[in-house]
Each structure stands twice: as C-alpha cells, then as structure tokens.
Amino acid sequence: MPPGTSMSAAASVTTLWPVLAAGLVAGYAVALPVGPVASYLVGLAARHPWRVGVAGALGIATVDGAYALVTGLFGTIVADLVRPVAGPLRVASAAVLVVLAAHGAWTAWRERAASDGGTRTDPLSAPRAFGRFVAITAINPGTVLFFAVVVTGGALLPDAAATGAAPAAAVVFGVAAFLASASWQLVLALGGTLLGRVLSGPRGRLGTALASSGLMVALAVVLLLG
Predict the structure, then answer these.
(1) Whether pLDDT at 53 is above 90
(2) Residue 116 neighbours by CB under 8 Å, 6+ apart
(3) Is 51 in contact with 126 (CB distance < 8 Å)?
(4) Where are the domains of the chain?
C-alpha cells in the first residue's frame, strides 16, 4: 500500500472521532427532553410486556438514527425541504398524538372492564409497537431540523469531506445518534415496565394510561402553540 494511502486512511479515522462524539451528543440532545412521544412510550410500557416497550424504544431510535444519517449526507437540502412544511407537520404531529392519547385511554378502560370480567385484552405486539413509534416519530419535523442544524451549522461533516470520508462520517454520525437515542429510550421503556409492575392492578394500569393520555394532549397543545 502506498504511504500516501495509509496516511489518508489514518487522517480519515482521526476525522471520524469528532463526528462520533458529535453524533452521541446530538442523539442525547434530541432524545433526553421528555416530550409527547416519550410520555406515550412510558405509559405504553407500563401496560404491556417489556418486549413491547423495548420495540417502541427501538422504533424511536431508528428514526432518530435515520434522520441523523440523512441530514449527515444532505443536511442543507433536507433543512430546505422540511422548513416550508414544518407548520403542517407540526399540526399533523399534534393530531396524531391526540388520537393516540384517546386510543390509549379507551384501550386501558376496556382492559379494566375486561379484567373485571376475569379476562384482559392485550392486543399490541412488539412489531406493531415498533411500527407505531416509527410512524409517530417520523412525522416530527423538529427532529430532522435539529439534526440538519447540527450538521450544517456545526460544520461537523465538511471537515470529513476534506479527507474524502464524508459518506463514512455521515454513517458514523447516524449510528452514534441511534445508539445514544436507543440507550435513553430503553431506560424510559424499562422504567415504564417497572412502573407497570408496581401498579399492576387494573386501577393502576388505568391510572397510568389516563395520566399518559392527559400529558400527551397537553403536550400536543404546546406543540400547536409553539
């Protein structure tokens, strides 16, 4: 291997370390605030088996990582495309959250009624939870705009482009954001599972569902007003 090639590869690897750190920081920054989706995750995990909460957490993290990857590759283009429709997407996000809040409260009420009759319905599977959280996270314009601002405003990836490692940097940035988001969402999901074990009675499950639904509606109103 020519000396110049090995030096270029070493420079590329060196350049990727700051991108890895930036991806981790960005992933935690977008995941840590407990918004309506996180509140829904905790409430759902409290009423279902642990695998359902874990699947939901990974659904959220998958979208975060995918958005980080896309903005790492096409940051400026993505920001320009999303910004004009951010308002309608915000309205759509709020509407979906209200519908999910109503659905969660109604499902918990039916489970309470079923438990009084000696049975309990538990219709949500792990694959459905994964798909549901992918959908409600994907329509959040704030996530993709946040990553676009981090990439373009922070000038993380142009340095990698100078060494010919721009695609690799985008992948590293996306994977790091996924891992950061997944670690926090799993904490929330497993915390919800533990809460569900503490409040394992029908009234406890109904109470957590109604509290989660109420918080989601309140956050949806904040989302519309913001």
Answers:
(1) yes
(2) 202
(3) yes
(4) 3-225
